Inverse folding.
């Protein structure tokens, strides 16, 4: 009886250890997450008049990644070739995204509305993306 209990405990510890090793292995490379938020620039204490859609890429992995470009994914797998608004702190592409770092690029809401109007789509049909060297396209959730 004691041998059975000891064997079950050893098996449980082994499963926990194996699970931890798999999770650690999955996190050794870059893990890129893409999200959006709306932003208003504040430069030298002055609040800007234009609003922007910010496309943010976060590296939650343990290795750096290179972001080669970013844009918006429209219905039918159509993508935009986006260039960020010239705001302070915006990184040029390609950009090395270090582990646990985040960076953002910005698109004016007027430009976003123009894309929606020309294509006859709603904002909720658009998803942000970044292209990561060696990993392909990473896509975020639809715009709110």
């Amino acid at each position: 009886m004691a041998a059975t209990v000891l064997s079950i405990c050893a098996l449980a510890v082994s499963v926990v250890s194996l699970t931890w090793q798999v999770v650690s292995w999955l996190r050794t490379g870059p893990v890129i997450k893409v999200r959006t938020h709306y932003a208003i620039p504040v430069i030298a204490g002055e609040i800007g008049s234009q609003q922007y859609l910010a496309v943010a890429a976060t590296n939650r992995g343990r290795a750096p990644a290179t972001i080669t470009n970013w844009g918006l994914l429209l219905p039918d797998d159509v993508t935009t070739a986006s260039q960020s608004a010239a705001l302070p702190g915006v990184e040029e592409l390609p950009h090395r995204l270090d582990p646990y770092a985040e960076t953002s690029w910005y698109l004016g809401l007027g430009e976003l509305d123009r894309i929606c109007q020309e294509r006859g789509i709603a904002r909720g049909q658009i998803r942000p993306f970044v292209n990561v060297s060696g990993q392909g396209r990473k896509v975020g959730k639809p715009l709110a």
Remarks:
- The CA atoms of residues 67 and 95 lie 5 Å apart.
- Residues 2-26 form the longest helix (25 residues).
- The two ends are 59 Å apart (CA to CA).
- The mean pLDDT is 94.
